[in-house]
Amino acid sequence: MAPSRLTAQVAGVNGKTALRFLLRAFGAAILVLVIWRVTTVGLAEGYPASFWISQALNGLVLGGVYALVALGYTLVYGILFMINFAHGEVMMIGGIAGFFALQFSQARGWLEGPWPVVVVALLLIMLFGMAASVLIGVTLERLAYRPLRQAPRLVPLISAIGASLFLQYSVLLIFGVSPHSYRKPALISGGMRMGDVFIPYTGAIIFVTSILLMLALYFIIQRTKLGRAMRAVAEDRATASLMGVDVNAVIVITFMLGSALAGAAGVMLGFHNTVVKFNSGFVPGLKAFTAAVLGGIGNIPGAMFGALILGLIEAIGPSALGIPTEYKDVIAFTLLVLILIFRPSGLFGEVLSEKKA
Amino acid sequence: MTALLSIQAVTKVFGGLTAVDNVNLDIEERSITSLIGPNGAGKTTLFNCLTGLHTPEAGQILFDGRSLIGLRPDEIIARGVARTYQNIRLFGRMTALENVLVGQHLQLRASHWSAVLRSARQQAEERAARSFALELLAFVGLESHAEVVSTNLPYGEQRLLEVARALGSRPSLLLLDEPAAGMNPSETDRMMELVHRLRDEKGVTVFLIEHDMKVVMSVSESVAVLDYGEKIAEGTPEEVRANARVVEAYLGPEVVLQDTVATSDI
Amino acid sequence: MTPIRANGAIRNGLIAFAFLGYLILIGIPGRIGGAALPVLALVAALFFWVRLRRDASGTDGSFPQTASPTGKPGWEIGAPGHTVSQEQVMPLPGAGGALAIRSGLLAGITTGLLIAIVSFAFASAIGSGASIQPVLDKIVPVNVAALIGVSPGQIANDEVPTLRYLLLVLIFTAAGLLAALAVVAARVRNPQKAPVARLSKSLDSQLYRTVARFTGILLPFLLLAYIAWLGIPGVSAFGSNEGTVRLLLTLIATGSGLFALRLVRPGREQNVVAPLLALGALTMPFILDQFQNSVMGLVFIFVMMGLGLNIVVGYAGLLDLGYVAFFAIGAYTYAFLSAPFSSPYISSLLNLLAISPEIPLLGYWTALPVAMLTAAIGGILLGIPVLRLRGDYLAIVTLGFGEIIRLFMLNLGELTNGPRGILEISQPGLFGLAPQSFSSGFLSSQGWIFLLALISSALVAFVAIRLNDSRLGRAWFAMQEDEDVAEATGVHLVRTKLLAFAIGATFAGMAGQLYASRQINIFPENFSLFVSIDALALIIVGGIGSPAGIVLGALALKGLPEVLRGVDEYRIVTFAALLVIMMIVRPAGILPSARRRTQVAAPDEQALTPGAEEPVAKELDGDTARQAQAASPQSEAVRDKEDQ
Ligand SMILES: Nc1ncnc2c1ncn2[C@@H]1O[C@H](COP(=O)(O)OP(=O)(O)OP(=O)(O)O)[C@@H](O)[C@H]1O
Ligand SMILES: [Mg+2]
Questions:
Q1: Residues spanned by CATH 3.40.50.300 within chain B?
Q2: C163 and C298 part of one domain
Q3: From CA A161, how far away is CA C537, in angstroms rounded?
């Protein structure tokens, strides 16, 4: 405790005048721009309220998926202080595996059966995707990251980039170029209508499932012995191991948990976007990382809220600013920069020493 | 004679904790002053305020008659206040010589263009910097280790190297944060001698934090004592040693009490 | 004891199977054709050999060659390191030999059985008419047939003789046996030393070293001469593959030139050899053909990029993943100036001003400062918001910037012409002459680009090295080591960081401009994240902070894949796998800079305690710190590797 605070005290540089001014000016300029666009363009378009609501619901669904992936980043970062750059690919592999499980169930006719059968089949599909992701995640940790635990931080990052490329192109080679398209079973392909707002079933299911999974994770971390060990390792690996925590096991389990969530996200994203391909994990992965940083990396509720906020802003932003939807990634990254300037430890981040940031 | 450094009512608060509480202290030119106090008393925090790593919430710091408040660390070292760190913070992968050269960063004026073209002026400046750096290494006794990567130096010599690096900026005030911490007796003696030579040969005013009472007593001309952020005593070493509040701060009131009880029992 | 051994052997077999299975899934046997089975068996044998040799050396993991002599003072006598390794005398050769053979056999059988089962499954599935391909793209009759060693027809008709599968098992078992025998044989002959050590010992004579040195220095010249000879019309040594082989030779020649530069002694020898090497390099564009020149041009454009990025990442320690932004800015600036008609916005603007958009606004050389300046301004503008960020945060934000720039290029159709790109960018001339007119056949258009890239890289390297050698370089490095202390030592952080961003961006801008004129037409896809990753990967593979390493990295990462054009499909996976392996085996790069080498030899606390625990490490009290220094980092690395 004391040592880290002592370092913090020297590291805690106050933003000094010139730099602070530059940053503030930069942030203020963007804020003014945003407010101006929103008032003069976005609101002037006169979209009906139902449009905004359905956009927002869309955003929540997307946010739920991002949250599952973001949790993987945050868990790993919290313990190993590395960006698992290949985490998006872990998710993609979950999606691919889910696709094959879906095909299999469809071939068996399980998805046309009575609804309990369909629900069980869908659960199995998701579990299969999660299992595939866990397998890949653990292998990744074992082969590409574990040997580098003592290395300077740049080294595992590069290794992760290599792993990310490797996974992407291996999937391309093994499963071919053609995108794999998810066909929704009839049971969940419709939607419900509430006034002017249409809510697709898949959207609702995705949102609810991600919330449930997040709650499960939160429970594991806060309430179980395993969770306590994880938190101990995150706090101080050396001390935790002196206290008898098996650090390696904890790290592997962290990767398993993160990958399982990512696998679920991959399957759900497959249903949401209808296609999965070798590179469809990359951009969501980046977004999820952004979300994790938004919420304060290493902070679990932060990742969830950061992801929901990111999903919302991405869904509403383009229309509100009156710009083409192609720029939604620009919005996401601009948001990230703004947050990091004004709250370097993220929206909900505990005050990390800047050393870590 | 006016003081070289004048700390006036400086207060630094972390959250709910007042780490430095309304401290006043004057340091005369070419003096050696020690700052002592129990762990967590706020000594390092005061140093951080002096060197611009923290901005105090209240108070004034005058150096050479001009305020240091609100200046960046690099502006403060440019004024002539250099420091070392309690937890050694050298540039680990640099050699000893390079560390001292970085210390001279502000002394060097040649433009970056001239560095690319290796103009005669720039070359002369670099040569001068190099020989000054070697001179400083010799001053602290590390002349034979100039090319050693600094993490490979023994602990005690790393502390000496930090002093040399600080001297690179030709400071008039040098802040040493526990210079003898973790040293063995002979290394400690060497450090004490160095502190004297800093003042006598380099004309540097020295303000140091130290826990080792032997060092404090033998090296300093005046001593200030901090406890819970407050200055509780100031004076010559003898005066401070005799001060009841200081004894209490170090040993705690109960201990003092028990002690008296114990003696009376006998 | 024995059961543990058996488990280990089966594990080895499983790992080998996993790896071979991967190769089968990505279709390697089909690629190799008839020789597939022996090749796979050889791969397995090699793997077994490595594993068995490690297992056989006994106590590996638990006693790495720990503690350099300083580690335990007065503990060792004699040459450092030697004592420890000699104490690890082999276990009894006889018993150990039998053990090794047994585990080799077991591992081989495991692998063989599994592969036989899998190939049987594939073959019978295909034979019975089930199509696997929609799921596993590469599991086609050709591939499976090559694996089993039969003809595709036999697979399709389901008439593979069962004996074939037995043969499969036998071949892999033989591979295991072979590996075990090799291990045992090596041990019997010389139980104490690894073959490499033995070899280097016997070659460690003065004469040998001198000869090797001079051969090393001469090699690039010999290769160059050979390449030139191959270029003479009528000479042909490699048939239809001529072009690719010459490219490979060129890459090797360039690389060996770098090693030659390291081999020469400073002083007179260097004064003679270095200019000769430079001259040799300059003749290359004249003797290569269009294809080879275009590859080499690209390689050296990436050298420029790498040198620029190295300033930001290697010198200043700011991890920038959005470096492609500046490359793009340079390229598009020149593109707008050179082909204004391609951009709707600019051409209408010019029409307003009554200037014809049909002719270039500026030539290559007059546009150069403009491109450099815009890139530098871009560097500063993108640098300001990230000034306060460190490490991974910086990486991710800059990565975001790179993507933002690309999205803008893609979507600002009015300005950049969107995905249709900017077309017909003009080539660099010389004193107002068009490139064709002065080269008069000696120099192909791509050769001219290569020549320019070569000269610019040399200039950039010169500037980078000199800057790094000045107070600015020291400030950068200090900042990388400890930002707060650097500031308290007088380094103006804002200025120093922005200078790094600006200089790095300037170099990228130069590279971008040359790239635009090399490509003639540029599109937003040319500036994807992969450019940043390539640039970063090449400086890391080459050796961060070392210009020679960067050239080598560019040769390896941008040049070699072109040689492998034939196996295009497998390029990226190979590259990616190499990246990971490289990080594990040689994180400092192929030709590391002196500083990185010292880092590997003696890391700061960071290497001993993971980055996260840095604060703890810094607070070590005297005794622990001393111990921490003493513990040999090499041993850490070794232990880690053995742990696997
Ligand atoms: N950046 C910071 N944030 C919050 N609290 C801090 C910070 N820096 C110091 N403190 C607290 O302020 C108090 C004074 O700390 P300081 O390091 O100044 O004590 P010190 O007198 O130097 O002690 P020591 O003898 O152990 O070095 C301590 O309680 C410390 O925990
Ligand atoms: Mg202190």
A1: 1-80+171-266
A2: no
A3: 9
